[in-house]
Amino acid sequence: MGSGAKVHNVAARTSGSNVRKRRKMAASDGRSGSAPAGSRSATPDSSNTSNSDGRLFTDSASESARRRWRLLQKHVCITRWLSKDLMQRHLKRFALSQQAIVDAVMHSSDDFMAVFIKIREQFLSLLDAENCFIIFETKRSVLEFDGRTICPSARAKKGLLRDSLRSGQPLQLACAASCEDAQIVDGIPNIDLRSYVCIPLPDGDNHVQAVVEIFNSRYDARVISSWLSGTGGSDSLNVFRAFVGKIIKAFAKRNKISEVVSSSASAGAVQPPTLAAASRRRHRSDSESDSGHNAKASGQSAGLAAPAAEARTNDLSVESLLDLLRQTVAIEHCVVYAYDKEAGMLWTRLSVGSTGYPATVPFGDGAVGRAALAGEPMYLTTRALATPPTPNSAVVTSAELTESLRLPSGAVADTLDVLLVPTFNSNAELNGVVLLRDKRDATAFNESDVAIGVNICRHIGSALHSSELHDAILKAQGKAQTLLDLSAVLFRELETNSLLIAIMDAIKTPMGATKCSMFLMNDDKSELVSPVGSDINCDLAQEGFRIPVTSGIIGAAATSGEVINIPDAYADARFNQAVDQQTGFVTRSILAVPIKDATGTVLGVLEMVNKRAKQYFDRDDEELARGIAYYLAIALNNARLFEAARAARRRSDALLALMQAMSSTNENVGDVFKALVETVCQILNVEHGELFFVDALSKTLFCRAGANWKGFSIPVGKFLQGIVADKGETVNLANAAAHPDFCSEYDTIAGVKTRSLLCAPVKAPPQRAGGDESVIAVFYAANKVGKAHARFCDEDTKILVAICAELRSIIERRAWELVFEASGSETTHVTSSFLSQYTSTPTLSRRRSHVSLRSFTDLPSAATTATVSATATAAPQTLTGLSERDGHSAAMIANTNLDDPMQPTSARLIHSWDIAPWEFSAPQLVDMAMEMFESFDLLARFRVPQATMRRFLVSVKSQYQDIPYHSFYHAFTTLHVSFKIVSSQPSAALMLDLVGSATPVSAASSPLAPSSSLARVTGDGDAESPRPLFEARDVMAIFVSAFCHDMNHNGRTNDFHVRYRTSIAMLYNDQSVLENMHAAACFDTMRRPGHDILEHLDTGAYRHMRKSIIRAILATDMHNHAGIVSQLHEKLKVGVFNSDDETHRELLVNAVVHSADISGPALAEALHLRWSLQLLEEFNTQYDEELALGMAPTPYMNAKPGTAAVSKLNIAFIDSCVFPLWSIMSAFLDGLDGCLANIQTNRLMWVAREAESPT
């Protein structure tokens, strides 16, 4: 007899015995109650005897009826209690079965046979049956599993089993006769069938995943019937079969059961161990095939298959469990909240497919917090519920659901259902909540979904617990490692800035903060200043961000000396929102930790912003931050002591070096002051320095710049130098060019691009008691050398002030001699007022001061002073206009007056980007080509006679064919664009200057070794500085290859020559056919008598030059374009490009020539349009020839002028070739912004033409 029948019999026996007991008690009560009635009847009043007997009988009947009613009520209550208890036990058994199946799934190591065996065991136990079969469909057949073997099922193709598979409706045969009539046991040996139940297992989509056959259940047929129909107040069996169906669907999808079973069972019956091995092999193969793919970011599925190592150890990750839950319940959006008990906060541990949900939720707040507080599943829905899937269910409106989930208004307007399931660790302690939102089929969550969620979330809770333990171990290790790294930094770094940068880099990762900044207390303890390395400096694009010590959260931490942990910054009144508004950054959480030394004095504050994982800083973060602040205090004290000692030594060394330079016996005063300036530059570690001398009578400052001592004057009180001279105060700027009083004209003259600036006055002592010091000179130091955006520190300022104090003596003694340097023997032009200030030398006639760009040595006499002034004054206007229009460095052509009528026409034309070569004759173009070579004095450097160069150019020109595009005009344009690219670079990037620039070519330059003779020399004469971008040999290679890169071009492409099998294609083996021909023609021309422009190079230099020219010409092959662009992306970056690496230099040379070759779209619109039409003419000619020769024509070459095809062709060329290349070049080289703008303008032109053209 089944356990259910047994329970019913026990209940009946218990109820019957209770009734019998109550009847005996009633009879006993009746007997005991008759005595008083008898005594009353013995009274003398015999006339009332009959009446008394009637009342007694009536009272006794009423009492018996009442007792029987009470007994019936008690019987009903007991029956209900027994039924309820039976139902609870029944539900518990189903719940335990669900739990057992989920456990089997979790710990099956992806062996689906273990899962099927567990499912069979649970059905046998629940229905107390003798045997159980599981029938399931695969791609090839229908199989049945009897607990021992899996084999094809012939029974499933007919009869009731087939109907159940198709309809999904359960059926029951209560007796042997019915089973025999239905022929259930056909094909099943050794079964004495008495009852039969067929239970389909549907999934969430109502597809039957499998069918369970129950043979000979010991339960009463009526009980099973009530289970199947869901009557009697219990629908547990239907919930359970839906539960199992969904589990099978998700698990089968993960392990590809259909494929494994079909392939294994196709030959006949297979034992479970064999299938298990096949399943494991299949899963291992899938895992290995997917091992090369990276997991996607949070918010996307990480895949159902857990890693093999986790499967072997039965330690599934939260991600894997969540994916199984999503597949089983058929949802897309879910969030796992982890519970931080100490902080009383739930934070987002994992989010898949969901956005907008709060990152943190206080415990007990909102729906998530209430579900955590209740510790039971909670279901919220906006639709009407017939049967709530959980006792804790509620129907709400969309607005109420949004508010309950703490979402912005309208954030989940499409959300219909939310299921919240709490998770627990192994100690039954709450450790999280899982939020499930909206099923894929838009149906409501049902009881099977809740059951699946509860069971899988039990494992998620265990995984969260393991993850917490793992995170705690990692956090402890990270804390120890961080403190160890900080201690190592203390011993490794002593310089304050380097120390602070190293510390900030070391603590950001272990603290898990998005931003990390430090604020140090200033000397008067009124402000907190952020040093280098702080993120706030980068965000605000400034150095030394300052906060009053009484302001904000940082100030509060510094004032109180206590740690301040703010989980919600905007909710704190002390938070300053101005920084967020300025930067666009959103601050959520802040941890501010004071940095205190051993005496408790606050040295600064360490600030961490926006915890990455938890979104708030917890107690562990506070403890780690305290440890970091402790080490920071030690580091700051040590660094300050070291800085003080080093500064003292640096000042003494600086003064010693300065005294040595001042004691020089050099009679040339110019060399003395030049040596002094170079010494100060070395002491301060700057790129450029200069002394400006004050002429008190004219109220001007003048200086000598460069080897030729160029004169430059500015009024006192104007520009930064004049302001320092006027006020006598030091100026220290991190970005001098942004200052409104910055003098950009001096940068042009000196050939420097000023970034950081330190200007200090040189003061003479007062001439009489009580008088004021007068400024006699200003030292100008530009560009602190070091890391990017290096600036002058306070110690640099102190050192320069000390140096200026020492300089005043030699300026007083020898400054007047500079006049003789300037004017040679013309001493009558010396300014007597200047001499009288500093020496006792007899006064001479005073020099007229003026703004001059000419060298003092160019002043022949007083009579020519006005002329020189006028000419020099006009020069800056010309240079300024040229720089703005052409975008190249004005410093390179500072002394080249392009408007001078004495200049050759060709010399003036080559400095313009807008040369239309068709407007000039061939000899004129050759003249301009000569000017380009001579502009960099390449003929003198390589000892090339002008006649030889001209013969070479003319011979090259004669070898260009008269074709529309690849003609001599294109060769000239390529040379000219190459010239413009090179000449647009600042002088610091070149190892040579344009003729007429500040630094003339040395007469001793050796043409046999141009690179060594042109080495850039630092201030102390050491030639160890990094090589510039372009040396003389690089420029020569660029110009020659640009001019010769299309020699003998016949207007046909490489592809044409290869396909038609021309002679040159055969000669060069189909490899860069035309380019190899051009390079060969170039050097074949040099072999002609009187044409060898490289004849004076030694063997090594010639080989290098020949290799450079050949490679640059080969680089113009468009087949190499993608490779060049790829290399440029990798190497042509500041900090990556190494001018000492020959491969980098070769890449740059090739890129310049290749850029010039395809520079049509980078030119003005009119030029670009004409070049495009001429190229199109060549294309059309080749297309016609291909048709005439019977070749397959090139489709794009058939585009006709004025059609949309032409516009599309040019747009494609710009997008795929020109813009990618020129954008890289413009980002790395100077002066190409205008070209990039032309490319954009020309592309818009083609887009407009395409829209206007007929289709």
Quick gist of this model?
The protein is an alpha+beta fold. The protein contains 42 helices and 25 strands. The longest helix is centred in the first third of the chain and has 58 residues, at 49-106.
**N- and C-termini, Cα separation:** 88 Å
CATH T-level fold name of the largest domain: Catalytic domain of cyclic nucleotide phosphodiesterase 4b2b
CATH superfamily of the largest domain, by name, is: 3'5'-cyclic nucleotide phosphodiesterase, catalytic domain
CATH structural architecture of the largest domain: Orthogonal Bundle
Beta-strand percentage?
Answer: 5-15%
Task: State the helix count.
Answer: 42
Return Rg in Å.
Answer: 47 Å
- The figure for the number of domains is 6
Unreliable parts? 1-17, 26-47, 274-278, 281-314, 822-899, 993-1024
Largest sheet geometry:
7 strands, mixed
Provide an overview of this structure:
This protein has 1255 residues and is an alpha+beta fold. It has six domains: 90-259, GAF domain (Beta-Lactamase, 2-Layer Sandwich); 318-474, GAF domain (Beta-Lactamase), CATH 3.30.450.40; 493-645, Beta-Lactamase (2-Layer Sandwich); 665-823, Beta-Lactamase, CATH 3.30.450.40; 921-988 and 1029-1157, Catalytic domain of cyclic nucleotide phosphodiesterase 4b2b; 1159-1254. Helices cover 51% and strands 13% of the residues. The strands form four sheets. Strands 9-8-7-13-12-10-11 form a seven-stranded mixed sheet, sandwiched between helices. The chain has a six-stranded antiparallel sheet with strand order 3-2-1-6-5-4, sandwiched between helices. The longest helix has 58 residues, at 49-106. It starts with a helix and ends with a helix. Residues 1-17, 26-47, 274-278, 281-314, 822-899 and 993-1024 have low confidence and may be disordered.
